[in-house]
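If it is no trouble, can you show me the amino acids of a protein and the tokens describing how it folds?
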Amino acid sequence: MESTFFQSLSALQITGEWKIIIQQTAANYFVVSALLCNEQCGDDARKLIPPLILKGTAQELDEGFFNAVEAPVKVTAQLFSNMESYLKQQEQAQLQSKMEKDKATKEASTKTDKEKKYDAAMKKVDELEAEGKYKEAWMKVPEPTEYPEHADTLRKRRESISPKFTAPSLF
């Protein structure tokens, strides 16, 4: 017995995974469920596509299976392709949207403002320390919780200023 089933399947040139279920219901009468899946498609709508259900005798299915599934399967494959393309284009549009660009710019400027405040505070600390106002300089050192990226530097700075303004021990 010679069959061209897989050659015919290959000739469809469809990307995806075939799930075919064959059930014999009566003598020489079959129900075939054929479903094309594409797990590479990121859209969950792909799971809503129903299988093709074909019923017939063995001879009818031998003669008409590929004629019956060719058009719907090609439409399904195109749908998968369109869904994936749509998701990629939607992602690109979101990245390039003005709102997203504005958001990124705002975040960058916020960081810049925060860095400016940090630099200004540290400059003031340097000035007060140079003037010999150690207690005021210590008070002007920003809290490490406000600038976690500079926490170690801020703690060390306070530690270096502390001995300069504490009162000498009387004992």
About this structure: Strands lie at 17-26, 29-37, 52-57. Residues 5-96 form one domain. Residues 108 and 162 are 35 Å apart (CA to CA).
